[in-house]
Amino acid sequence: MKIALFGNPNTGKSSIFNLLTGLRQQVGNFPGVTIEKKIGAFNSVKNKHQLTDFPGTYSIYPHSKDEEIVYNALTNSEHEDFPELAIVIVDTSNLERNLLLFSQLYDLKIPLILVLNMWDVAERRGIKIDLTKLQSYFPTTPIIKMNARIGLGKDRLIAAIDELDDKAKKDAFIPSSFPCLIDDKEAQKEEVLLRYEKIREILQDVQHEKTTINNTLSRKLDRILIHRFWGYFIFVGILLVIFQFIFSFAAIPMAWIDDSFVLLSSWMGQQLPSGILNDLFAQGIIPGIAGVLMFIPQIALLFFFIALLEESGYLSRVVFIMDRLMRPFGLNGKSVVPLMSSIACAIPGILATRTISDWKERMITIIIAPLMSCSARIPVYTLLIALVIPKTYLFGFVSLQGLVLLALYFLGIVSALLLAIVLKKFIRVKNKGFLIMEMPEYKKPRWGNICITVIEKVKVFIWDAGKVILAISIILWVLATYGPTGNMEEKIAQAKKTEFYQHTNEVQKQSIISSAKLEGSYIGIMGKFIEPLITPLGYDWKIGISLIGSFAAREVFVGSLSTIYAVHDENEEHQNLLTHLKMARKADGTPVYSLATGVSLMVFYVFAMQCMATLAVVKKETKSWRWPLIQLVIMGALAYIGALISYQLLA
Asked: Do residues 40 and 89 touch, judged by C-beta distance below 8 A?
C-alpha cells in the first residue's frame, strides 16, 4: 500500500518516518521538480508498504513550492504519489493549528489515520486530551497517541494500518466545502476561518486544563540562548566546539583509513603483474577511492552535529537570531534557512529558497548560497590546514587548526553578506520580507534519528562524490601516464642533463625522472599551459591540474592530488598523501606547500564556484543560464583576487 505522511513542520514526521522505515530509505525527487522526496519501506503484520514523507505544510492551499508538492499529489488521483492511505501527524500540544490540515484532508475522503504525536510535551504543559471524545468527532478515522522520539505508539500505529477499513465513508468536516478546488483567495480565507471556528468548538469539548507555558524550561533557556547580545556569542562558541571536535576526534580514524589504503596500494602493486593494470589500480583507482573515504570521519562528524542541533530544537533558534543579524543586509528572514542548509550542501540550500515568495530576494539568496562553506570543502580545508598550520593549542586546549577552520567558515559567511549588499543595489526588492517560524520545545535528541541522518548523508557523499572522484582519478591517471610521442622521453633526457641531476643520490634522481615524465604527459602539458595564470597565486602546474579537475566538484581536488603524486612516485615506497605534499619541492628546493600557498588555496576554495551540480540546479531553479553564469563569474573573480592577495601578503 502507498502510504503518505502529512503534517505541519516540527510535528515529528521525520521521527515517525525513521521509526517505521529504519535504514530502508531512499532519496529521490518529486516528479517534475528538484525537491527532495524521501521514500521508505516497512512491513506490517499483514502487508508490505511504501511510505513517502511529504514536505511540512500548514494548509492544503499552497503558498510555496514545497506546499505545491502536497497540493499536486492530493488533487490528482492519477499522480504517482497520490496516497492510498494518509497518516496525518499533529503536535498534541498545539492541536488548534495542526487540525486545520487534518480537517482539509478529512474532507478529501482519503483514508486517514490521525497521530497525536508529542503527547509527553502536551502533558508537561498541563494539556489533557479526552481521546474518547475526540474520536467521537471522527468515528471512521483511527486516532493514535504517540511519542515517536522514544518509539512509543509504533505498534499501535502499525495495527491501525492493518485494521483500517479503506472503504469507510466520512461525514464532511465542513459541509458543502471541498478543499483544493477553491481558487479564489478570499474564499480560501473564509473556509479556513470557518474550519478554525469549528476546531475551537471541538477543542473546548476535548481539551482541558491548559496552563501557561511562560515558565517552561524552553522559555527559560531561550532567555539565554536567543538573547539579543549573548545569543551570538553562544552560537559562535558552539561552532568553535564543533570544529575542535572535527579536528581532534577525526584525526585518528582519518590517518587509519589513509594508511590502510597506502598498504592496500602497496599490496595490490605486489600481487598484480607489472604493467598497465597494476599501475591503474595502484596509482589511479586506489588513491582516488582513498581521496573520498579518508574524509568520512570529518563529514560524519559535521552531519552529526548539524543533526544534533536540529533534533534538540536549537537550530530553529539559530535561524531566529541570525534573522535579526541579516536584515540590514537586505535579506529576507526566510533566507536564513537556505543559507544554514548550504553549510551541509548548497544544492538543498538552493532548493530551500522556494519558501521565499519574493522573486528578487530569492535570486539574491540563490547567488550567495554557495559562499557558505559546504561539506565538500571539508576535505580540501582539512588537508591544507594539516599541511601548513602547526598542530598547536592556544591556552592549552584550543586547537589552532580548529580556529583556522572556523575562520574559513566565517570568511564565507561574511563574504556572502557583503555580496548581498552589493546585489541589493542591482536587484531591487519591492516588498519588505518577514519571517514566520515556530520555536519547538527543546528536546532530548533521539539518537536513532541522528544515526540514520548521518548514515544517509555519508552514503550520499560517498556515492555522489565518490563516483565523480573515481572517474576523474582514472582519467587523470591516463593523462598522467601517457603523452605525445617522444615528449616524455625528451623531458627525461633534458632532466638528466641538469647539474642538479648529476650531483644527487639515486633516490632523488628517480624522483627527478618521474617528475620529468609527468611533466611531459598530457596532463603535464595542461598544467604547464595554465601555470603562468596561477603562478602569482603561489601554485605550480601540479596544483593547476587539481584545480582543473575540481571544477567538476571541489572535493576532487584531493583525489586529483592523490593520483598525481601516486603517478609521480611510482617507483618509490608508497606513502600517504600528506607525506607526499610535505616533501614536494620547487626547482629551487623550497617547499611547494608553504604557509602562503596553503592559505592562498584555502581562500580560493572558500570563494570558488567549483560544483557543476550546483550550477545545474541554479539553472533549473531560475530557468535560465544567466544566473549560474553570473555566479560563476562573481565567485571565480573573488576566488582569484582573494587567493592573489593572500599569497602576496604572506609570501
From this structure: no
Domain ranges within the chain, ordered by starting residue: 2-208, 230-426, 464-650
Q: Take residue 487 and report the three cell numbers written for it.
A: 615528449
With bands split at pLDDT 50, 70 and 90, how would you rate the model's confidence at 481? confident
Q: For the range 327-332, what are the long-range contacts, defined as Cβ-Cβ under 8 Å and sequence gap of 24 or more?
A: 329/417, 329/418, 329/420, 329/421, 329/424, 330/364, 330/420, 330/421, 330/423, 330/424, 330/429, 331/361, 331/364, 331/365, 331/417, 331/420, 331/433, 332/356, 332/358, 332/361, 332/365, 332/433, 332/434, 332/435
Name the more confident of 509 and 647: 647
3-state SS assignment for residue 386: helix
Query: Position of cell 531591487?
Result: 428
One-letter amino acid for residue 271 of the chain: Q
Number of C-beta neighbours around residue 259 at 10 A:
15
**How far is Cα 554 from Cα 375, in angstroms, rounded to an integer?**
10
**Chain segment 43-56, per-residue pLDDT in tens:** 888 888 999 999 88
The pLDDT assigned to 527 comes to 83
pLDDT for residue 291: 65
CA angle 559, 563, 567 (to 5 degrees): 170
**pLDDT (tens digit per residue) in 588-626:** 778 888 999 999 999 999 998 877 777 877 887 787 888
CA distances from 509 to 107, 269, 502, 533 (A): 81, 22, 8, 29
Percentage of residues in the chain with pLDDT exceeding 70?
A: 84
CATH of 2-208, one of 3.40.50.300, 3.40.50.2300, 3.20.20.150, 3.10.560.10: 3.40.50.300
Report yes or no: 323 and 435 within 8 Å, Cβ to Cβ.
yes
Terminal-residue alpha carbon distance, the chain: 65
Comparing CA positions, the residue from 340, 245, 341 lying closest to residue 298 is: 245
Q: How far is residue 235's CA from residue 479's CA, in Å, rounded to a whole number?
A: 47
